[in-house]
Design brief:
- The protein is an alpha/beta fold and 661 residues long.
- The chain contains 16 helices and 28 strands.
- Helix 6 packs parallel to helix 7 and helix 11 crosses helix 12.
- The structure holds calcium ion.
- Calcium ion binds next to strand 12.
Length: 661
């Protein structure tokens, strides 16, 4: 064996920490060269009991100028079915890249991955989605989605998404990508107590490369969670639905107990910069969760690249949503894009283009929204459009443009000015001659090169869901005691109108549309703003709402279908958007635009979309002609034969009008 690893070997390091063969198993760990002793312990069980064996590992230093060493040990015998931990002197850890674990992810497991393949896994195929513009992303938490579904066989589990009712619902709605909230092994749910209701979003990673045990039917069996995760992917793929994984490489639950820290203290984290100097003791906290990882370090960068590749290769994941992407450096994100392009360029990558605190890297190096133009093939969420529609993230009670018609709104002029930010969201955050960037809320320059670099949305798991936000800021402003179910029918109707109007902006945007699971069921979280550990009673989807508010589901369904049937809404190219999308002059409480001249080779020559947030009908001038009305007053009918003729149209209160000729 070489005495040091070459630079190329380091650059290709694949974090393969365990190779099991019938006669021997090789263990490898990237750990400090200076560690006094590194051992691997072999166990019979995933939890409890004494080690069967403790084996001392040997170091191969990395090349000159590189931190750390690769520690290896070869253990004789067939170890299949055993568990193991590493110990570099900082407590036991399954390593940083365990691929199978026992309960609560404390020990890594030695399994044969072939035994995790569901039937016909080899025939699994990624859904064909030609352009990210064609995606309709549905953001879902496993437990929210299925825990209260009366006919669910596997409530709260990965397997719920294999059940006919679930697949049918998603297909009926028309979404073609499910973005699953953290589904890697996280720490905040105790997998040994699954008979008790426990809830967490899961933004507290433990083992990045293993599915979460509490979503499996048996967290003690290392193969179970792996197999059931794959069954889920397989069932969604069969239905033509892509699976997008929420990846949280930017922080770990804590530092002291994390696998990173136990394996290689301080390597994976950034420290604060104090007076221009790197602090020895203070960890930087750009994640707002107490720490931030150091993507710019060679092995952290490799870790992220290898992890993304692994989820693609082993689990056939179709896309990745990077939590707090603004904590990662641009170079790493571009390296990830490059690595996935070599496997499958259709893998979609997007992230939160911000951090949750000050990072210990200069902003110009970070994957923030303002730097998206330097990250081709990577998209970010548009808070411009989101907050212009619903109101600022900093105060749940302040309305956005949607509240312009409400009698409780006293700042109508300010709300009128948000129109420009909605227009910015409609074009997909690109440069467009009709957008006055000086009037856009958060960004003063367009940040996307292509419209597919912008995620269009009005709500996600963070902050209030749409119903609650409209309650707090418009419908029931200042009256926090009331809940949606207590509203009188008139107010309920108004809320529904605004809800549908908001999503019409999202789904007619040239960005990539994204919705929170349950919005189609008029979900509410009883006003809870940060429900990351709230009980099921707050977070669960109320499936009875399908019957209570069928018009809501119907509108979402028809709206998604309208987008999918008409390429004009998803041009996917900045030049085409500039060529075909033209805003029409209209009052401030309205946004009006035309997709003209068979945009995207659409069947319809010109499509006019007018959003009216006012409580009064609004008149808007349009190019003279005979038009067919396909969306009016909260109803969509693509086959409609209802015609209007003339130079002006009247748009009903708090609703969208879509016409074509
Ligand atoms: Ca776990």
């Amino acid at each position: 064996m070489a005495t040091t690893m070459t630079r190329a070997q380091v650059q290709n390091f694949d974090f393969n920490e365990m190779d099991c063969g019938p006669e021997e198993t090789t263990f490898r760990l990237f750990a400090p060269a200076t560690a006094k002793k590194v051992v691997v312990r072999i166990y019979k069980e995933g939890i409890g009991g004494k080690p069967l064996k403790t084996v001392v590992m040997k170091a191969t230093p990395l090349g000159a100028g590189q931190e750390g060493a690769i520690w290896t040990a070869v253990v004789k015998g067939n170890l299949l079915g055993r568990f193991y931990t590493f110990d570099t002197g900082h407590g036991e850890t399954p390593g940083v890249f365990a691929k199978a674990v026992g309960v609560n992810g404390q020990r890594a497991a030695i399994v044969n991955m072939v035994n995790s393949f569901p039937d016909d896994w080899c025939c699994d195929q990624h859904p064909v989605i030609k352009s990210p513009a064609d995606l309709v992303v549905y953001e879902l938490h496993h437990r929210d989605f299925s825990i209260a579904r009366p006919d669910a066989k596997y409530p709260g589990k990965f397997l719920a998404l294999t059940e006919p009712w679930a697949i049918e619902h998603l297909k009926q709605l028309g979404v073609n990508a499910v973005h699953i909230l953290p589904s890697y092994d996280y720490g905040s749910v105790d997998e040994t107590r699954l008979n008790e209701p426990q809830y967490n979003w899961g933004y507290d990673p433990v083992n990045y490369n293993v599915p979460e045990g509490s979503y499996s039917t048996d967290p003690y069996d290392p193969l179970c969670r792996i197999r059931e995760f794959k069954q889920m992917v397989q069932a969604l793929h069969k239905a033509g639905i892509a699976v997008i994984l929420d990846v949280v490489y930017n922080h770990t639950y804590d530092i002291d107990h994390s696998n990173f820290q136990r394996t290689f203290p301080d390597y994976y984290y950034r420290k604060e910069i104090v007076n221009g100097k790197l602090s020895n003791s203070k960890y930087s906290n750009g994640s707002g969760c107490g720490n931030e990882t150091a993507s710019e370090k060679p092995m952290m960068r490799r870790f992220m690249i290898e992890s993304v590749k692994y989820w693609f290769n082993e689990y056939r994941i179709d896309g990745f949503r990077f939590d707090l992407m603004g904590c990662h450096d641009i170079e790493t994100m571009n390296e990830i894009r490059k690595a996935v392009d070599q496997i499958d360029p259709s893998i979609f990558i997007y992230g939160e283009g911000w951090s949750a605190g000050q990072c210990a890297l200069p902003t110009e190096q970070l994957g923030v929204k303002a730097n998206i133009s330097q990250m081709p093939g990577i998209a970010a969420f548009s808070d411009e459009m989101r907050d212009a529609l619903r109101g600022p993230f900093s105060d749940d009670n302040i309305p956005g443009w949607l509240g312009i018609g409400s009698t409780t709104t006293d700042n109508k002029e300010e709300l009128s000015s948000l129109k420009e930010s909605i227009k910015f969201g409609i074009v997909g955050a690109i440069n467009h001659p009709q957008i006055d960037m000086s009037k856009v809320n958060y960004s003063k320059t367009p940040w996307a090169n292509e419209p597919t670099q912008m995620m269009a949305y009005v709500s996600c798991h963070d902050d209030m869901c749409l119903v609650d936000r409209l309650m707090a800021s418009v419908i029931d402003k200042g009256n926090h005691t009331s809940q949606f179910s207590n509203l009188n029918s008139q107010l309920k109707e108004e809320l529904i109108r605004l809800n549908l109007l908001a999503q019409t902006a999202v789904f007619t945007s040239q960005g990539v549309p994204f919705m929170l699971s349950g919005e189609e069921l008029l979900r509410n979280k009883k006003g809870v703003h940060n429900s990351f550990e709230s009980p099921d009673s707050i977070n669960h989807l109320d499936w009875d709402n399908l019957q209570r508010y069928p018009q809501v589901f119907k509108y979402y369904q028809d709206l998604i279908a309208l987008r999918q049937h008409h390429p004009a809404f998803r041009l996917g190219d900045a030049d085409l958007v500039r060529k075909h999308l033209e805003f029409l002059p209209s009052p401030a409480c309205t946004v009006a635009f035309r997709l003209k001249n068979y945009a995207g080779r659409d069947d319809w020559r010109d499509i006019i979309v007018i959003l009216n947030a006012s409580r009064e009908a609004q008149k808007v001038s349009i190019p003279k002609g005979m038009y067919t009305v396909v969306c009016q007053d909260g109803e969509i009918n693509e086959q409609s034969t209802s015609k209007i003729f003339g130079r002006t149209v009247s748009v009903n209160p708090q609703s969208a009008l879509i016409i074509h000729n």
